[in-house]
Amino acid sequence: MIRFENVDKWYGPMQALAGVSGEVRRGEVKVLVGPSGCGKSTLIRTVTRLEAIQGGRVLVDGVDVGARGVNINRLRQRVGFVFQAYNLFPHLSAIGNITLGLTKLRKMGKAEARERALAELARVGLAAKAEEMPGKLSGGQRQRVAIARSLAMDPEVMLFDEPTSALDPEMVGEVLAAIKQLATNGMTMICVTHEMGFAREVADEVWFMERGAVVERGRPADLINSSAHPRLQRFLRTFA
Amino acid sequence: MLEILQNNWLLFLVGQYPHGPIGGLTMTLFMALTALALCFPFAICLALARLSPYRWLRLSATAIVHTVRGLPLIMFIFWTYFFSPLIIGRAVGGVETLIIALVVYEAAYLSEIIRAGIQGLPKGQFEAASALGLGYWTTTWKIVLPQALHNMLPSMVSQFVSTIKETSLGYVISAHEMTFAASQVNNVLLTQPFEVYAILALTYFVLCFALTSLARYIERRISAGRVAVATPAVAVAV
Considering the domain B2-237, what is its CATH architecture? Predict the structure, then answer.
């Protein structure tokens, strides 16, 4: 479903991604962990070309994301992205945030779009907050609206960029529950997170990144119990 | 001063109407509002062009904005006044001339306000729109402009205040507005220029001060709203 082939990314003289390769198959859940600045967010941002890359290729369903002539907006509709800072549109209500993509991209009528949006909000437990403006919602609720907004587009893959890092601790659970639900239903996902407990529960494979490269990968239980990589062990002691 | 006002208030308010053209304060407000309304679409186009990824579009828009901002308004009034009859082949009245000149002039200033509004939006808004797969125009009309224009409302009211004051230059081409009315009164009375122009100044001041206060009020409301939607500060993950 998603393939990284020797991906290189530079920010000026700083190399953010150094020859990253890997594959995410349909239905798989990969969890990316690693210290700040290791390139894990950058890596998932390359999948929908939110970041351009300088070397290698990123393929979604065999299509090179960076190739000329690729309809990037069409591709982005198939790949949901959830941001750390939610990035809801503050001038639109919760439901308005969701119906915008449905009416403009899926060409649904108003009534159909509302119905679909309400169903998505119900799925994340927020049907009652449909008409609220984002400013009136808690952080956890905003992130769940953002997840519903992505899901409404019927994506084949979901990418989560530290979805709980900006949340107060008591709200982390509700957002993780929504993501777990998705994993249970077989959604293909890549999730950048520091929540090791969550990684253990849902990940088919954990990729541990450091300095722009994936230095360890394996089933969560194996990684967490192994003593293979001292840097990983230190990382786990901090976060697990 | 009160006596002057008592005898001439109608002239200050509507000019010679109904015995002549509408003028006075009414025409001042009409010209300022019309100019601002008409320049709005141009200002939006200029602002978008200045932020365009296409170099030629960006450079031409920047050149236009800098040229207009580097020249005094009275130049545009004179040019419109003397050249538009040559172009359209008939005389153009003072009011039309002033409105055209103001549209050109204000479009450049308003475009800078709109551009600042767009650039002031958080990067996450553009990214969220991209991530959904929204195209440039949908993003611009549904996400960017509604927020940018709302945030820039106070600056736009201030620009309206400037425009009101600038209409007084219409006097030099005999556009019937409030300053023109005041000078007519002065020409009749001959001996009381201080009082006549004090009335004029006071009228401009009350109007503009009220609008400036409105701008401040809107600004406070908007920044209060912004605190409510502000997302918690997060470290930028690379």
Answer: Orthogonal Bundle (1.10)
